[in-house]
Amino acid sequence: MKKIVLGINRTLFELEVGILIFGGLCQLFVFLPKDKLSYSLGLWVGIITAAFAAFHMWWTLDKGLDLEEKSAVGYLGRQNVIRYVVIVAVIVTVAVSGVVNPLSAFLGVMGLKVSAYMQPLTKKISRRIYGEEILPDLIEEPDAVQE
Q: Helix, strand, or coil here: 139?
């Protein structure tokens, strides 16, 4: 299992762990309303959507940064629009179905944003699994040539 986890991009791993932690914390409060099943299903539909959105972001950036600047801008923009359209389609489908609560689904999707803010916590979890992060040396800019 650890070998599989180590094969995942470290930043993506931290983001996904943060989304799951947020989902678990929100699940504690799902037991307060009367319609527990609807709220819980909506929350986890949103959490799964957020997890796929995080993966799509990583995948898009990984591919897009290998392209030339002009191509990369167009590619990243298109992929961004696709990601938002899918998120909106999930929320609209949830709202129209009436089976799950759309507000709790939206809360789950917001796990993507909350996870980014939980980075100090998820970084500690990541260090326990991956070990200390070895960063490359900073590239020093040469001093301006004086005339």
A: coil
Domain ranges of the chain: 8-130
pLDDT score recorded for residue 89: 96
Distance between CA atoms of residues 71 and 123, nearest Å: 32
Angle at 56 between CA 136 and CA 129, to 5 degrees: 50
**pTM of this structure:** 0.79
Residue 122 has a CB neighbour count (10 Å cut-off) of: 21
pLDDT tens figures, 98-120: 889 899 999 999 999 999 898 88
Render pLDDT for 24-58 as a digit per residue (tens, 0 to 9). 999 998 877 788 888 999 999 999 999 999 999 98
Among 106, 114, 119, smallest CA distance to 25 is for 114
Nearest alpha carbon to residue 9 among 64, 79, 57: 57
What's the rounded Cα separation, in Å, for the pair 132 and 124?
Answer: 10
Q: Is 12 helix (H, G, I), strand (E, B) or coil?
A: helix
Triad 26, 55, 96: Cα angle to 5°? 55
Q: Give the residue with greater pLDDT, 2 vs 73.
A: 73
